[in-house]
Amino acid sequence: MLFNSIDFAIFLPIVFILYWFVTNKNLKLQNALIVLASYTFYGWWDWRFLFLIFLSSIIDYLVGISLSKQENLTKRKTLLWISIIANLGFLCFFKYYNFFIENFVSAFSFFGTEIKPNTLNIILPVGISFYTFQTLSYTIDVYKRKLEPTKDFVAFLAFVSFFPQLVAGPIERATNLLPQFFRKRTFDYSNGVDGLRQILWGLFKKIVIADNCALHANEIFNNSTDYNGSTLIIGAVFFTFQIYGDFSGYSDIAIGTSRLFGFNLQQNFAFPYFSRNIAEFWRRWHISLSTWFRDYLYIPLGGSRGGTLISIRNIFIIFIVSGFWHGANWTFIIWGALNAFYFLPVYIFKNNRKYFDVVAKGSYLPTIKETVLMLFTFGLTVFAWIFFRAENIEHALSYVSEIFSKSLFIYPSFQQDSLVKPIVVLLFVFIIIEWLGRGQQHALANLGLKWFRSFRWAFYCVILFCVFYFHFSGKQQEFIYFQF
User: Structure pTM?
Assistant: First the structure.
């Protein structure tokens, strides 16, 4: 079920009414309703996906129970590895089986040996990368004794399958989300209203910004040999805003929807394109995944405790693994490695712990230095996104080589030139609104609250009108991160 669909627009009010007016006096019934709603939401794509998420839930639930009864270190490690191997085994099979087979065949072909591979027509379960990491956080934290294992199977199912963030995050830690299923929840009007504002802004990001940018980005990337270097740069910029509007829009809708049901999820995007270096960018982009890799991979590998060379090794590992997490394609691995190279100078010169505060705090405009730093970081990010978006390495290199050719100095041209100017205007307005709200949890959190009520509601109505207009008049695009 898509957030930007009529199905979800009907589904959400029904679940909301049942949750607050039918099951509100019984916490266990509320949790059971969440499980039912979540499995309905997830099974809307393909009911067969439900078996896998249910099996993954059973394994980690039983491992958690067993860990609570086991004090022997060797046996505890065995239980942990059962969870890790089972979950990553599912992930690798469904997501990477054909990738490994094809590269295995290519390696043998390089040395002159031809073998016939047995590839499979595997359907990738939606959101498997997200809920796999979420449930793994549970068993790892229980193993480390950071979390008491739950004996409430329904609450655990609700934690793993919680429908607002099930498909594309945020990747919630068990230490944050799971305890919320055991606390009595009461409806908070102000929290609910702010949740609706966040949903509205998320829909605007997705339908108005991301989907419109996608039309031009797809046209340019899919036909990159037909365009000059300057147009290819603009295509990369369009994709840069597409993936941000698409993914952060999903997170905003997920977080806002969760707040309607009395849950608080972590912020997943903190205005990353206003970052002043690449370290700040990665503190602000897909925060739930970045911190997951930091806590469950980087730190266990030794983090920055083993000297410069060990730290550099660990940095490359987490960035490359992060790239591979996104998909079975060498372009994602190159994208991860490229970001690791970006990160190195920042780390070596000890600038990775700068810029924790919001840019231009207390001011409407950034300084010249801040502007230059943001533009430079944005430029690096745009360049890296080319590899992320390209179909393969050859496509990426061809795209980049054309950018750095003489055609870079030719005026940009588009197939539908008249449609480009409106999206440029929308992007300009979008950036201004994001800039004004950059210090908050989301752009509309405080924006307009001190305005006259008529102005504020007019502002919301304009955003809502844009959402409806582009939803029914434009070509809807699937959320990019559904493929991951």
Answer: 0.91
